[in-house]
Amino acid sequence: VKNMVFDGMFANNxxxxxxxxxxxxxxxxxxxxxxxxxxxxxKKSTVDFETLLDRQLDKAKExxxxxxxxxxxxxxxxxxxxSYRLDGNNVDIESEMAELYKNSVKYDxxxxxxxxxxxxxxxxxxxx
Length: 128
Description:
By secondary structure, this protein is mainly alpha-helical. It is about 60% helix and about 5% strand.
């Protein structure tokens, strides 16, 4: 017999964990962009995860299931042929720093959410 409450709690934790992994990858990509901001010809990268996750969440509304296996974050180069600089590098250090901050805040929110979910599960399991 399935317990919908517990299944939902753990599914939510899996979803948050996947999003945290993608956020961690995004941080690494942003830091790499910043580290290469002065390298001539370097093209910045980004991580696509939010769009994939949104699609999976829309499907979950219909099916009741989130398929995390088909929602893996993907790294892609941005504006391969575009650069506003003469050296061909397309990294804007200010926007990368802002993106790093925004991504760090998202990660912290997800981590706190995961901690709170586990506290609730622990409370349910240990209550008499």
